[in-house]
């Protein structure tokens, strides 16, 4: 659902005639051109990584953050419910916590991947993005990097599963569930699921910082951010 919503935003940015009319009237004076605007957008995304994404790497960075906490996928909710019914609530809780611990560890290892993605990104229409929604630059980043970052991030998630013991916890949890009478065996691809959820969490926190910069002048802590984002005020 998040991916569909993000793609719709990008479509709206490029398709909205009214926005394009405003874009065409954006001043070119003061030495602020596409190069400066692109640099300002990258800087905003970099600050999102530096100030917000780093929070995800701390203990409970995902687990106690309602914006990004990883919950169970639909096919595992029946596992959670069944185990709680037979008095294994603590094991079920550990299973959820383990998924979030894996994400926290993986984001710590993968932060340079996101930094590199922002550095390499080329904005096709800097003015439209600058004058877009509060998360327009983040949405653009998603559209240009999500597939590539998924492929780079998944092995990191897989490694983190082992480091934090999530693989063993979930092997034990699913084995217990599959041994219960009148249940259908499950064998979910948790690495794929947590990879997608962790990526969404990273993009969510980058968007938080982008919105701060767009809506609060005090959050524009460099001359470039002040100069560029003044154009959208």
From TrEMBL:
Top-level taxonomic group: Bacteria
Pfam family, one: DUF4197
InterPro entries noted in UniProt: DUF4197
Name of this protein: DUF4197 domain-containing protein
Keyword terms, alphabetized: Signal
Signal sequence interval, chain numbering: 1-17
Statement: the UniProt record of this protein carries the keyword Signal: yes
Organism: Winogradskyella aquimaris
């Amino acid at each position: 659902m998040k991916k569909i919503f993000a793609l719709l935003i990008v479509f709206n940015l490029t398709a909205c005639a009214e926005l394009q009319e405003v874009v065409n009237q954006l001043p070119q004076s003061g030495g602020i051109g596409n190069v400066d605007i692109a640099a300002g957008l990258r800087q905003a995304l970099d600050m999102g990584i530096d100030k917000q994404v780093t929070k995800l790497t701390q203990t409970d960075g995902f687990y106690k953050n309602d914006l990004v906490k990883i919950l169970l996928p639909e096919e595992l909710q029946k596992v959670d419910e069944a185990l709680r019914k037979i008095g294994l609530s603590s094991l079920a809780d550990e299973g959820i916590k383990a998924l979030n611990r894996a994400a926290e560890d993986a984001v710590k290892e993968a932060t340079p991947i996101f930094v590199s993605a922002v550095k390499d990104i080329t904005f096709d229409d800097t003015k439209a993005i600058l004058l877009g929604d509060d998360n327009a630059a983040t949405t653009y980043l998603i559209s240009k990097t999500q597939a590539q970052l998924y492929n780079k991030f998944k092995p990191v998630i897989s490694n983190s599963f082992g480091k934090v013991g999530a693989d063993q916890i979930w092997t034990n949890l699913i084995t217990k569930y599959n041994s219960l009478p009148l249940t259908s065996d499950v064998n979910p691809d948790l690495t794929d699921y947590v990879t997608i959820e962790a990526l969404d969490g990273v993009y969510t926190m980058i968007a938080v910082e982008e919105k701060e910069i767009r809506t609060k002048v005090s959050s524009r802590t460099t001359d470039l951010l002040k100069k560029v984002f003044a154009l959208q005020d």
